[in-house]
Amino acid sequence: MNACIRAVVRCAARHGVKVEGIRQGYRGLLEDDFIELPPRSVANILQRGGTFLETARCDEMKTPEGIKKAIHILQQRDVGGLILIGGDGTFRGATALAQEGDVKVIGIPGSIDNDIYGTDYSIGFDTALNTALDAIDKIRDTAGALERTFFVEVMGRSRGFIALDVGIASGAENILIPEVETRIEELARDIRNSFERGKKYHIVVVAEGDDAGGVFPIAQQVWERLGLDYRVCVLGYIQRGGSPTARDRILASKLGSAAVDALVAGKTGYMVGEIKGEITLTPLRETCEKQKELDSNSLKLIKVLAV
Ligand code: F6P
User: Fold this and answer.
1) Starting from the edge strand earliest in sequence, which strands make up the sheet with 174-176, in order?
2) In this structure, which residue's CA is closest to atom 5 in ligand 1?
3) In 3D, which of 42, 35, 38, 40 has the Cα closest to residue 3?
4) pLDDT tens digit sequence for 282-295
5) Domains of the chain
6) Cβ(112) to ligand 1 under 6 A?
7) Dist. CA 56–CA 59, nearest whole Å
8) Nearest CA to ligand 1 atom 16
9) What is the distance in A from the centroid of ligand 1 to the CA of 157?
10) Contact present, 136 and 202 (Cβ < 8 Å)
11) Is the pLDDT of residue 255 over 90?
């Protein structure tokens, strides 16, 4: 997000537009917590994780009163355009602001879950993916040395995008995701078969939103069937931090620039995204209503590669 804020500030300066940052997202908006962001104020943040503007969950923005208050503050400050980085919750508020206020609104997809409709990738996903990959590579060393099966839980909220991609990249034998019903018998059979084929250990990546009750009960149920030596590892919040990857910095810079271009061109109520390498504009409302599909070919590939 820092790379994106930097891009917004500097591209806006190129257009002669003054930028102010709002601290802690919608919470800061409702508390009128704005700070000036001249071009040099965003120096040396490109490589830092998180967001120097900070963020917060804000229930008040889900209410009509909250939206009214936000519009009032934006009007009082004579704000001409608002750029928001986030996902579903952020864009629901943004849609209401675009519809009910005069301010022009452009969204930028930011979520490690990569579950936002209207873009191939959202800011943060690639960094989270690489963090999870690095962790699983390390886990594999122990799995191999001790012939132990590992059940590794990754984030993703209710979607399996991180699990699917890290599953392929790490060479996991199975991935369990919310989009596909988990059948313990099938999983146990896969693991038994792989041992019979000569494998010494097995890595199962479990998305946190999987429907089978969570990584611990899943591992326990497999153990009840096979009696194997296993460990569970929940990767958790390490996936949300750290210095962004090159891919994330580039995506953030491109989308920040595209958001400024859209505002300057008078657009409002859209999310900028990147699909097949092209910058796109998707109505914010659509990003909330439509569901992003998982790549079914990737799902098949996991099975083919785990021989
Ligand atoms: O949406 C990003 C995410 O990290 C999810 O992967 C995870 O389920 C959730 O946020 C955690 O949210 P919180 O910080 O509120 O626990």
Assistant:
1) 174-176, 203-207, 149-154, 230-234
2) 157
3) 42
4) 999 999 999 999 99
5) 2-124+244-289 (3.40.50.450), 127-240 (3.40.50.460)
6) yes
7) 10
8) 237
9) 6
10) no
11) yes
